[in-house]
Here is the input.
Amino acid sequence: MKKKKAVKKKPSPLTMKKSPKKPSKKTSKAKSTSTKRTTKKFKDFHVEGQEAFYCCDGSVFYCLEDLRNALADMPNDVYAYHVTDKKNDFQSWISVVFKSKKIAEEIAKIKTPAELQNKLKRYL
Here is the structure.
């Protein structure tokens, strides 16, 4: 008598179970979004030339600290020129030049120079 060879049937795609993924050997640590990390990132961040903020009164800001310091003496009409219901030039500058959507989103809600100055202190 001949022995029958066992024939392996291929499972159909509907009955196949996915094998669990093996954890990768490289472990990545979650990045902290603490203020300290942000502070170091922006404290020494200075821009030049076209990336600087040119204020309507002739002032030029090369970093967030320049802006923060200028806000202390900035007249309301100068601030109102850059921040209206339809635009916020400071928010746009921070978003584009410093590439920080987080700070830009927080600044979008601010309506006075004093509030903006206090918010920027957190990041410097």
Observations:
- The radius of gyration is 28 Å.
- DSSP finds six helices and two strands in the chain.
- The first strand starts at residue 53 and ends at 54.
